[in-house]
């Protein structure tokens, strides 16, 4: 069971990385899009001692973002209303996939929290998140997972190649 969970986690990480790569490759078609691609190459800040939430922006209002977690994810709260720091200009659009580091949740419905850092990850979640069922796991002679074949939520088969440079959580 632990091995299956490890494979599933590795698959999800690879899917996220593959989506980011596809999004960046698609951004290199015109000069204005190349500028956004060079911005995407900069690593977004990580806040080590804060909670993390990733989801789709469903509403923006003043300094607030309402964000809903994407199917296949479980951050505890389905929807959180984040208050952005004063120095962050709210240029976010509905439908964008964002990553938010935040402080303690306030007792309210829906949940609310003060955002510490907000990073746009993609124009839409589908370009960086793939949910699916693993159909086949290929391993090397030493037992290291090298490939994952899965069927995504749209019925398409996707192969993820895993190398020594692949980030692993386990």
Commentary on this structure:
Residues 22-41 are annotated as: Disordered. Keywords: Signal. There is one protein chain. This protein is of the alpha+beta class and 170 residues long. It folds into 2 domains: 1-42 and 131-170, no CATH class; 45-127, Beta Barrel (OB fold (Dihydrolipoamide Acetyltransferase, E2P)). Helix content is 21%, strand content 35%. It has 2 helices and 8 strands; from the N terminus they run ααββββββββ. A 5-stranded mixed beta barrel has the order 1-2-3-5-4. Strands 6-7-8 form a 3-stranded antiparallel sheet, with helices on one face. A hairpin with a 2-residue loop joins β1 and β2. The radius of gyration is 18 Å and the shape is elongated. Residues 17-41 have low confidence and may be disordered.
List the helices and strands and how they pair.
Layout: H1 2-26, H2 31-40, E1 51-61, E2 64-68, E3 79-83, E4 97-102, E5 111-122, E6 132-139, E7 145-152, E8 157-161
CATH class of the largest domain: Mainly Beta
CATH architecture descriptor text of the largest domain: Beta Barrel
Number of domains: 2
CATH superfamily label of the largest domain? Nucleic acid-binding proteins
Morphology: elongated
Main β sheet profile = 5 strands, mixed, barrel
What's the overall average pLDDT, rounded?
75
Q: Low-confidence segments, ≥5 residues, pLDDT <50?
A: 17-41
Strand content: 35-45%
Task: Tell me the strand order in the biggest sheet.
Answer: 1-2-3-5-4
Radius of gyration: 18 Å
Helix-strand pattern, N to C? HHEEEEEEEE
Estimated structural class: alpha+beta
Give me the count of strands.
8
């Amino acid at each position: 069971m632990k091995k299956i969970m490890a494979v599933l986690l590795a698959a999800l990480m690879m899917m996220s990385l593959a989506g980011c790569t596809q999004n960046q490759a698609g951004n290199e078609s015109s000069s204005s899009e190349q500028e956004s691609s060079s911005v995407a190459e900069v690593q977004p800040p990580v806040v080590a001692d804060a909670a993390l939430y990733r989801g789709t922006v469903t509403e923006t209002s003043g300094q607030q973002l309402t964000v809903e977690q994407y199917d296949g994810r479980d951050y505890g709260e389905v929807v959180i209303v984040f208050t952005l720091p004063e120095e962050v200009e709210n240029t976010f659009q509905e439908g964008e996939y964002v990553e938010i580091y935040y402080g303690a949740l306030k007792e309210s419905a829906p949940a609310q929290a003060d955002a510490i850092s907000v990073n746009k990850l993609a124009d839409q979640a589908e370009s960086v998140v793939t949910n699916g069922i693993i159909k086949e796991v290929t391993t090397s002679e030493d037992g290291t997972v090298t490939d994952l074949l899965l069927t995504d939520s749209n019925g398409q088969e996707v192969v993820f190649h895993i190398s020594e440079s692949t980030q692993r959580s386990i």
